[in-house]
Amino acid sequence: MEYPILGTEPLPVEFANTLYGGVDCLSTPELAAGWFAEMALAAPAPEAARALRDAVHGLLDARSKGLPLDEAQVETVNAHAAAAPTALRLEPAGDGWESRWAETATGPAAVLGRIATCAVELLAGGAPLRRCAAPDCGVLFVPQHARRRFCHPTCSGRTRQARYHRRRTEDPA
Ligand SMILES: [Zn+2]
Fold first, then answer.
1. I need a surface site. Which of 43, 54, 146, 150 has the fewest CB within 10 A?
2. DSSP letter at 20?
């Protein structure tokens, strides 16, 4: 299966996008294992992953629509963030410094905690969230600039093509 992984988005956003176009990419243990493998993450228990994903998806979706956050979903994210050991380390990188997850935060038990912690930071930071404007897409993303409307250039290209096609078929010259 081809997973809807943009490769450009924060971890919780990629995670939320496992619910995409009516397909749940975490619906079976095999599918879930495949997604976590593609993200180079240890695969956690599938049921727990799906529960956290539903909460994260709900919260990011609400944010993208300007709706208030659901308290139960917030609680689920907070519980996952608290349950797993996540530790950020400051480490030298080239001429500067970067934050890296400590070894304790990379095992299967910690992966969901790490995703939840990232979701807490993302939502607290007030990052804008948007849904791709392509009618057949709707993937969530964080717009790097205010005018970005599509998750990926292929989506904007496809939409332009569809518009062109429609114009041609609607106005036969
Ligand atoms: Zn798209």
1. 146
2. E
Taking the centre of ligand 1 as the mean of its atom positions, its distance from the CA of residue 6, in whole angstroms, is 9
Domain ranges of the chain: 11-127, 128-173
State in Å, rounded, how far the first CA of the chain is from the last one.
42
Task: Tell me 152's DSSP state.
Answer: S
Q: Does residue 64 contact residue 140 with C-beta atoms inside 8 Å?
A: yes
Q: In this predicted model, what pLDDT tens digit does every residue of 29-57 receive, in sequence order?
A: 999 999 999 999 988 999 999 999 999 99
**pLDDT per residue as tens digits for the range 105-142:** 666 668 899 899 999 999 998 888 999 999 888 899 99
Comparing C-alpha atoms, which of 102, 59, 66 is closest to residue 80?
A: 59
Question: Sign of the CA dihedral 40, 46, 48, 51?
Answer: positive
Cα 20 to middle of ligand 1, angstroms:
10
Is residue 105 a contact partner of residue 113, using CB atoms and an 8 Å limit?
A: yes
